[in-house]
């Protein structure tokens, strides 16, 4: 027996494969889960599935999360519909085409606006609310691509690096409040077999499934951070990559 109240969770970018896998973990716990993403039809289908898996209320917000006008009002409205908030998880992003972004500044801006600017604003809106109530978790899904600039994806990587720094700063801000139940964490997956990575050759020990990454994210939301790699071994792989001297690194084609 337990008197613990079911969690109230907001998932931003809820139609991603990793987000859906994470939402199922919360549903199994009986959490109420608000889902936000562009595709209202897909959100409705996910909501029905989560309800069947044991979730409480599952309100949905069909919105382009990269649209920054009215962002804070939209955040407050969905939290009010949920009846409060305990965990906020941010999943959305775009890889974009590096070569296109190098040639076309509009394409570069589109990547940066989605992967950094709008994501940062949603994170700040969540941090404001969580700090005011003195409890809760902010979990932002970043990427190992942000650990070192590489010619193959440095625009995407730069956005993820900036977002990780922002979340680390929020984690520091939360820590200084002295509230033990208040934390922020950036989760950095490596290669994950999702539709987002369909353009890449898949297979091998470095690839993870959405369910594997979801388990790491759920654990991080319970209290860890401010940086978590998913799976864990990417911490050591990226440590090596960061330590390679530039003259040697610049001879690679990573």
UniProtKB/TrEMBL annotation:
InterPro entries: NAD(P)-bd_dom_sf (IPR036291), Sc_DH/Rdtase_CS (IPR020904), SDR_fam (IPR002347)
The protein, known as: NAD(P)-dependent dehydrogenase (Short-subunit alcohol dehydrogenase family)
Molecular function GO labels: oxidoreductase activity
SUPFAM superfamilies the record matches: NAD(P)-binding Rossmann-fold domains
Organism: Kaistia hirudinis
Stated family: Belongs to the short-chain dehydrogenases/reductases (SDR) family.
Keyword entries, A-Z: Oxidoreductase
Matching Pfam families: adh_short
